[in-house]
Amino acid sequence: MRSNERLGGEDEFEAAEEAISAAVAARLSIGTAESLTGGKVAAALVAVPGASAVFEGGVVSYSHGVKTRVLGVPAALLERTGAVDPQVAALMAEGAREALGVGIGVSTTGVAGPEPHDGKPVGTVYIGVAGPRGTRTVGLELHGDRDEIRTSTVVAALRELTAYCGLSEISQ
């Protein structure tokens, strides 16, 4: 698991610009599935001029019900692990890809605080990225207040999206 100390002060807009550029270069459309970030990843992406070339849309899946009904995350998994889990992040990203018909899906799930959730401490975050080369997840241990954790998560998700696009040679 990584910490937000390594994220530095990178601006959300700069990270979003890089993600859009990487997706354009990889010819991959983007969709999001967000829990703790509540749409902030999508908002960062659409702040970039030209984002419409690759960004299709997003799902804010704050509740378990939306994760299950819209993204296809099994209710039994959510009951067993809670939403803050790497497998849930992976399935959310895959679900975004399927539900939105996009080449790459990125997801965020975690605990922004102020209290622990489902036995997970504040700052525990998982990001999922699903695309033509499969699905990967990254875990983060973030520090700060609720807003700082959410902002660090957005930057980290955009970086993961950029990195994944850079690996992809398959267009969709």
Automatic annotation (TrEMBL):
It holds the Pfam family CinA. This is CinA family protein. The lineage of its organism: Bacteria, Bacillati, Actinomycetota, Actinomycetes, Micrococcales. Coiled coil: none annotated. Residues 15-163 form the CinA C-terminal domain. Gene3D superfamilies: CinA-like. It comes from Kocuria coralli.
